[in-house]
Amino acid sequence: LKAEKNTKRVPSFRKLLRTSQIKLDNKLKNKQYKQKSAAKKYRKEQKKLREAVRDAISRKPFPLEECKKKQVGKSKKWEEKEEEDALPLDMMDEDDLKLMEDLAQKASFLTRDLSSNEPVHIKKRKHESVIEKYEKVPRRLQTEPEKELIHLLPIKDKSGIIPQAVEKPVLNVARDEEEDTEEMEETEDFIEEPLPVLTPEEMAAQRRQKLQERKMHIAALASAILSEPDSNIKKLKELRAMLMEQDPHVAVIVRKLVMVSLMEIFKDIAPSYKIRPLTEVEKATKVKKETQKLREFEEGLVSQYKFYLENLEQTIKDWKQRKLKKSNVISLKAYKGLAEVAVKCLCELLVALPHFNFHNNIIVLIVPLMNDPSKMISELCVEAVKKLFKQDKLGYASLGVVKVISGLVRGRNYDVRPEVLKVFLHLRIKEVELQKDSEDIAPKKKFMTYKEKRKNLSRMQRKWKKAEEKLERELLEAEASESKEKKLKLHTETLNIVFVTYFRILKKAQKSPLLPAVLEGLAKFAHLINVEFFDDLLIVLHSLIASGDLSYRESLHCILSAFHILSGQGDVLNIDPMKFYTHLYKTLFSLHAGGTNEDMGIVLQCLDVMFAKRRKQVSQQRALAFLKRLSILALHVLPNSSVGILATNRVFMQTFPRMDLLLDNESQGSGIYLPELDEPEHCNAQNTALWELHLLQRHYHPTVQKFASHLIAGAPTEGSGVLPLDLSQRSTTELFETYCMKGMTFNPPVASVAPRRKDTFSQRDSFVDEELNKQLQQHISETVAHKHLDFAKHLKESSLA
C-alpha cells in the first residue's frame, strides 16, 4: 500500500497542455527543495548517531542487563515474548561472558543505557584531539550526481499517455578546460612572435597597394555587370558586400567608391518601367527560357536595389544617431563623409529613377533631410527636389514629394527651414495647365463616318481610307503617353495639398519665418485658387500688411499675391484695391542701392500687375503720382534698378494718356506738389515736372542715358528718339536681370584704353606742349593789347563828344 501511495499518477496530456511554464518552474523548485530537506534530515540523523557514540564512550560501561521498557501500557504478549527471548547469564560460557565484558569496556552502542532520558546532544569534550574527531566522522560513499531530465511531448498509446524524457547532456568540463588552455597557449605563442615594424613610407605604400587592388576589383565587377546585366546580376551581391569593408586603412574610401559605383550601375541597368512581383499563378506557369531569364534578372535587380537602399539608409541613421559599430573600423568623424556620399547617391537616384521601384521610399528619406542642420546636406536635398519638380511631366513624383513635405511641416509644428516650402515654387503645374489649355483649344482630328465614306468615296478609296485611319489612330495612341484627365486630376490634388499647407500657416503661424515663402507661393499660384476663397484671402492679406509685423519684402509679396488674385478670376469681383496701391506708394522709398536693391524685381512685378494689366481701373492722378515717385527713386538705386524703373516709366507714358504733362514746367492746376504725402490721389503730382530725367541723362551707365533721353523726347515709338530693339522689346524684369552687377561685371563692358609709351613720345609731347604755351601766351597778349586800344579809342570819342 505504501508503494502504491508513493507512486505518482501520470498526468494526462490535456493537463500537461494546460500547465503553464510558471507552474512547471514552481514544481521543479519544490522538488529540488524537498530533495535538499531530505538530505538535511539525513545529515541530522547521522550527526545524532555520532553524538550517541561519543556519549557512550564518555560514560562508564554498564553490565549487560535487561532493557527497561519505555512504554507502560504494552500488551502482555509482548512482555512474555521478551522474557522468552532474553538469555540468562548463567547459561553463557565463561569465554562468552569475558568477551561481552571486553566489549562493554569499548565504545559500543550496545553499552548505552537506552532507558536513560538524557539528551543525545551533549557538549563536546575538550580533551578530544583533532585526529580523533576526524576519525570519528563517518565515511561517505561517492555517489553519482543526479541526472537532469528534459521533459518532451508525451506519446499517446493504447494503454494511455506515456511521458517522454531525455537525459540532459553533461558538458565535459575537463575537456573544455583543456581546449581553453590549448587556445591560451596558442595565443601566447602568437603574441610572443614580434610583428614587423613598418616605417610610415612603407605603411603608405602598403595602403596604396591595397587601395589599388580594391579599385581594380570594383572596376572589374562593375564592367562585368554593365556588359552583361542578365547573366552577371549575381555579381551585384559581391560588389554590395564590399560596403562592409573591414580593413581600417582603406575602409572609408572603399565604401565611398562602392556606393558611387552601385549608384551608377543601377542608373544604367534599371529598366524604364516599374517591376511588379509575380503572382502565384504566374510562378506556376511554364514560360520560355528567355522569359524565365528576364524574370530572374528583374527579381535579382529589385532585391539588390532594395538592399543597397537599406545600406544607404543605415549609414545615414548611424551618423545621425552618432552610433558606432562593434568592429569600430570607421570613426565617427569619417561617418560624416560616408553619410554625405550616401545622401548624394540617394539624391541622384531620386532624380534619375522616378519611375522605378522604391521611389516613394527615397522621397521619405530625402524630404526630412531638407531640414537637416548641416547646410551641405540640406542644400543637396533641396536641389534634388527642385530638379525632380522641373523634369516631372506626369505629376506622380511631384504629388508624392508634396504629400511628404506637407506632413513634415505639420509634424514639426511649422518649425522648418523656409527652403523646404520654397521648393513648391518650382512645380510645373502652371506650365502644364497652359499647355493643356492649348491642347484643348486645338481642333481634334475627325474621321469620316461609314455613311460619308459610302456616299463620297469609291470602294477602293474606302479601302485605302480605312487603312490610313487605322494607322493614324495608332500614331495618336503612341503620342498620347498619359491621358489629360489623369494629368488634371494629379495636378488638382497636388495644388490642393499646397494650398492647404499655405492656409494653415496663414491661420496658425503668422509670425513664422515660413510666411515669406507662403506669400511668394500664393503670388505664383493665386490664379489657380478657387473664387470662393478670394474675399477671405484678401482680408487676411490686408490684415497682415496693416499689422506692421511684416518686413518690406513680405509686404511686397502680399501686394503681389493680392493683385495676382484680382487680375485672374478675380476680375468678376467688385473689390477696390486702393489700400494696396497706397501701401506700395508709401514703401517705395524703402529701396536704395544697398541690400534692398534685390527687391526691385518684386516691385517691378507689382507695378506690371497693378498698372499695365489693370489700366482701365487706374486713375490719371494715381499714375502721375507713381511716375513722379519712381523717377525720384531712380536716382538712389543701382544701374540695373534704374533701367527697370525707367522702362516702367516708358510703359506708363505709352499706356496712360496725358503723361507728358510732367515734361512741361508749367503747372496744370491749383495747389503744389506734396512729395512727402503718402496718398497718391491727393499729392498734386500734375503740378510738378520730371527734372530727374536731366540728371539721369548724365548718368555713368550708357543704358540709363539712353532711357532718360528717350523719356525726355516723350517716349516716341518712331523717329529720332526711338529706343533700340534690344531694349524696347524686353520686359522690365528682364532688363533688371540683364544689367545686374552680382558678378562684379559692368554691362556693357567698359572699353580699355591702351597706355602711351613714354620713351618714344615723351620728347615730342614736351615739344608740343612748349609750342602750345607759346601760342597761348601770344594770343593772350594780342587780345589784351586790342582791348586796351579799343578802350582808349572809346575814351577819346567820349571826351570829344
From TrEMBL:
Biased composition (Acidic residues): 81-90
One of the record's GO molecular function terms: chromatin binding
Entry's localization field: Nucleus, Nucleolus
Pfam families referenced in this protein's UniProt entry, alphabetically: CBF (PF03914), NOC3p (PF07540)
Disordered: annotated segments: 68-90
Chief place where the protein resides: nucleus
Keywords linked to the UniProt accession: Coiled coil, Nucleus
Single GO cellular component term: nucleolus
Domain CCAAT-binding factor: 555-708
Signal peptide: none
Family note: Belongs to the CBF/MAK21 family.
Protein name listed in UniProt: Nucleolar complex protein 3 homolog
Gene that this sequence comes from: NOC3L
